[in-house]
Hints:
Strands 4-5-8-6-7 form a 5-stranded mixed sheet, with helices on both faces. Strands 2-1-3 form a 3-stranded parallel sheet, with no helix packed on it. The mean pLDDT is 90. It has helices at residues 9-18, 33-45, 66-74, 87-95, 112-122, 138-149, 173-181, 198-202, 207-217, 222-233, 237-245; strands at residues 3-6, 25-27, 50-53, 102-107, 128-133, 154-159, 167-172, 191-195. The protein is elongated, with a radius of gyration of 23 Å. α9 packs antiparallel against α10 (222-233). The chain is an alpha/beta fold. The protein contains 11 helices and 8 strands.
Amino acid sequence: VDRIAAEDTRRSRRLLDHYGIATPMVAVHEHNERRMLTGLLRQLREGSTLALISDAGTPLISDPGFALVRAARAEGIRIVPIPGPSAVICALSAAGLPTDRFVFEGFLPSKSAARRTRLQELAGESRTVTFYEASHRIVETLNDLAEIFGGAREALVARELTKTFETIRSGELSELADWVAGDANQQKGEFVVVVHGFAAATGDLELDVRRVVDILLEELPVKQAAALAARITGVARNRLYAYAVGGSPKG
């Protein structure tokens, strides 16, 4: 190609130098992408070719490039995708969880309250749920997941995929949260978290059990309702909590 649009030219230069590639680069990232559009589109219209690359993974998957690709397509400029690594797909392929239907949530909100709100909205999602997470939030996020989705929910934590210190571990959310919290080395790097969907992970509750939970929810907070329902019905509290936060119909 005539030019390479890179998320971070300094990081990409190392890779290009390794292969002896001297193609000129231009920085295109989330802070300047829209400002760069006019010049890049003009060059493409004039017949130049442009490669869009990201620091790691596949461009546009939680990376910059959406505005550029959209504008180029609107101009009738041909877009040629080149398959490459994607952390979420790598994690799914190794998770041993259902992959026929899954949802990718990207990065959860960085603020605790907003993150917990979003997780409560997802607690009843029946598809396998996938997230990206940063090292400085992974412990808090796993604790939130265990509390809101239920500690017994099956999940997987994948760290530094395809890199030197790759770690992939599956288990229940509560177990994974304790494991990461107890090992500082497992709190470094880039993370993918894969969580089993609600329906298959918790099973269907009997109608009379759901009625008990629904009645208690009219008078009590979720945690108390789930705990009391567990005492009444003998059903595991984690299952009842997952049902309570999952927005299942009253019945």
